[in-house]
Amino acid sequence: MVDTSTDKYYGGFLEFETGLRNTVYHKNALALSHGRACLAYILDQEKPRVVHAPFYTCGAMIDPIEERGIEIVYYNIDNALDPVGLPESVGADELVIYINYFGLKSNTMERLTNQYDNRLVADNCMAFYSRQYGNAYTYNSCRKFFGVPDGSYLYTPTPMENEFKRYEGYRLDHLISRLRGDMDICYGQYLENEEAFDCNIYTMSALTERLMSTFDYDGVAERRHSNYLYIHERIGKYNRLQLLLEPMAVPHYYPLFVAEAPDRRLLAKERLFIPALWPDMLSREASGFDHEIDLAKNILPLPVDQRYTSADMECMLGILKKYWTPTDI
Fold first, then answer.
1. Which pLDDT value is given to residue 309?
2. Does domain 30-156+165-211 have CATH number 3.10.20?
3. How far apart are CA 209 and CA 316, in angstroms?
4. Model pLDDT for residues 199-213, shown as the tens digit of each residue
5. What are residue 46's phi and psi, to 5 degrees?
6. Side-chain-facing half-sphere of 271: CA atoms under 13 Å
7. For the structural domain made of 215-320, what CATH number should be given?
8. Is cis: bond before 324, omega within 30 of 0?
């Protein structure tokens, strides 16, 4: 019987991190304020008539497209999170967006790059460690992998100058509260920071630029990779998603796809925070996306990030199994 008593909190966003290393992982990219700013930049450069986007995505991707009055054509994904029903080719006035889901779909991204070239937009918000794919526009998210208030790196088909104003609208309350252990207030502060982002384009804040030079990128990658494998070895056979962890992949979460997700509020009471990805899509007006709705309701994104060890993974699984009974696929 696993002892699940712990003073540690599992999951949720990342807190403040310190320690100067003078390293920059994405040296040849534009450092912008957030993923929405990157996509807004791409749309303003390309001015597409149509954007092909996965239905299984967050509203933050859809907002800048809708704001510009661009037609969105949603497509399905299969049980391997690969696209279904995309056209063989697209015109010069079209773009295709694909998400590197959970940091596990680099091989699919490479294939789509060969197919669509510079008409592909590679959303690497869940795959910070992936760099540019061929001539595709490629962007990521610093906040999904590190305890910073803003930040995203954008690769473009041709080098571009960063002529935008510094982002100064960030907030630190949630990062500081989490560092102090004020868990009862920090999540609300985190949501306030998220809501402060809009679709305007800014340069990465000076604070985040400084913080992004402090991280042990190799150490973070190794820890995420090993934590993912630890979970997969123990419950992978019960996962409705059968995704291989590519040798160089650095995962965002471990996506456990179950038949019926347990009540996440009960897990939170045990200090295990598992987000829902993405609840806003459930109210999106479209038909023919039952599989995507199933994914949104029943994927449990389990934290595998650099804060945790294999002992933490074992404790987290012990908490989860109080409310979820593994069953064979």
1. 97
2. no
3. 32
4. 689 999 989 998 999
5. -90, -30
6. 14
7. 3.90.1150.10
8. no
Q: Give the angle 269-58-193 at the CA atoms, nearest 5°.
A: 65
pLDDT at 193: 65
- Report the pLDDT value the prediction gives residue 17, as an integer from 0 to 100: 60
Partners of 256 in the β-ladder:
300
User: Is 163 exposed, middle or buried (CB count within 10 Å of its CB: 0-12, 13-18, 19+)?
Assistant: exposed
Residue spans per domain, the chain: 30-156+165-211, 215-320
Amino acid at 10: Y
Mean pLDDT of the chain: 91
* Ranges under pLDDT 70 in the chain: 1, 16-20, 171-172, 174, 178-179, 187, 191, 193-197, 199, 328-329
- Hey, do 30-156+165-211 and 215-320 end up sharing a CATH topology, with the first three levels equal? no
Instruction: Supply the pLDDT for residue 3.
Output: 78
